[in-house]
């Protein structure tokens, strides 16, 4: 029988012991997460197989069962940037998908979307 978590008095542990315990816990968490992901992957593969499809084929389907159209290819291979953070130029947004946090926060503080537009 193993000890209950609530019965362990960590206040008696040294700093080094607590750090070692945290590292052991991190490793155990990583192993359990990895194991769970392997289980979930097997379940997904079994479900796809049960309808005669591959996982990749299923992921290409839109929720209504229709195939998604991919994004228009960017023939230059460059990242499309339509908006840029004026305080941190590395933060950009293509204008597609959910607005990034930095942009959403700026808009909530009264900024206009046009303030961040990149001129072509």
TrEMBL record:
Pfam families noted in UniProt: Histone_HNS
Organism, as annotated: Plasticicumulans acidivorans
Family: Belongs to the histone-like protein H-NS family.
Main location: cytoplasm
Keywords assigned by UniProt, alphabetized: Cytoplasm, DNA-binding
Keyword Cytoplasm recorded: yes
InterPro entries, sorted: H-NS_C_dom, H-NS_C_dom_sf
Example of a GO cellular component annotation carried by this entry: protein-DNA complex
Location of this chain's protein in the cell: Cytoplasm, Nucleoid
Name of the featured protein: DNA-binding protein H-NS
Listed GO MF terms: bent DNA binding; DNA-binding transcription repressor activity; minor groove of adenine-thymine-rich DNA binding; transcription cis-regulatory region binding
DNA-binding protein H-NS-like C-terminal domain ranges (all copies): 73-118
